[in-house]
Amino acid sequence: MLKTTLLKAATAAALTLGSWASAQAVELQFYFPVAVGGTAADTIQSLTDEYVAANPDVTIDAVYSGSYQDTIAKVITASRGGTPPQLSVALSADMFTLIDEDLIVPFDDFIKTDEDKAWLEGFYPAFMENSQTGGKTYGIPFQRSTPVMYWNKEAFKEAGLDPEKAPATWEEMVEFGKKLTKKDANGNVTQWGVRIPSSGFPYWLFQGLTTENDVILANSDGNKTNFDDPKVVEALQYLVDLSAKYGVMEPGIVEWGATPKAFFERQTAIMWTTTGNLTNVRANAPFDFGVAMLPENKRRGAPTGGGNFYLFKGASDEQLAAAVKFVQWITAPEQAAKWTIATGYVAPRPDAWETDAMKAYAADFPPVLVARDQLEFAVAELSTYQNQRVTGIFNDALAAAITGQKDPATALKEAQAQADAILAEYR
Q1: Sign (positive/negative) of CA torsion 162, 163, 166, 167?
Q2: Which is deepest, 163, 194, 230, 354, by most CB within 10 Å?
Q3: 97-108 per-position pLDDT tens digit
Q4: Alpha-carbon distance 148 to 154, whole Å?
């Protein structure tokens, strides 16, 4: 009887202690964009649950906030309304916008130990270009990517091309594209040689071309663009010529979202898209495919892309410290490896690639290494103050040239003038 009574008392005490601990837990709200697909959301939820289970002094409410555009709109609205999240993943390219809106705090204040400093210094430098400015670190790379080139090996073989060799230069992409473009008896194209999406955020894939043409679209301070540089004009002319001159790409605006499906259905033999589509392509391509770095012209290269973690003003010091600990944990090698394997996004730290899980994954599926290796040649994604306005202007210029409304030089000269008018106050 006494034993039963003591057991009941101990159980009650444990429940009381657990309730007290739960009541004292630091509460965090975490916005996460789910436009990247269900696998990403499931993986984030699993990782978040794992962290909370091991850290009962923290509760994390993961809010799935839609596309990147939806997410930035929601965090700005919530912050202005006095209810900001403590933590969010948002585009790395939105860093200057979040600084300009005075919504975020740098991570530097929470980097205190040698271990903290080693963690912060352990990310790929290419990813940190869109994460730091003015000597401070505002973003921590997580859901990061570069565009890569996918090709249908069966289509290459049918066209008399080496199925193991992707086009390595702009000239080869045109040459291969002509052989890969197929027409029916009526002259209608049934398979295009190449597909470079130009809807949604066309500047990003176009930045692959400008990087390869050895020109940077914006400075690292986010207050000056180079849209009308002759090398940018040349890159846009090449993009237009893929359809208008060479006939290897579908004319007009090419839809981003429909591109993987077009690839799977053999409507195109080559596509440019994010490495974040790697898992999707591996699961759904009904043919053997290859993955390569983007083809070079004056140099090799591509922009980085994707999302960073940001810390938001309005949170308590205790909440911010807890948020930083969570970010440190989820970007650590084992968790970063799980994320990359589940999604295809690039593990943002070299040490993640040294885990047994990533070594086994890369040995089984070597294409995962392409985007990582391309980081050696990568540049920062286009990012400026008032980023949505500036990139919107640039996207409109690209569209005007792609659809034949304006020649590339005129479209880009006008875009540069408009960008200058917006950014002058930030110089």
Answers
A1: positive
A2: 194
A3: 999 999 999 999
A4: 19
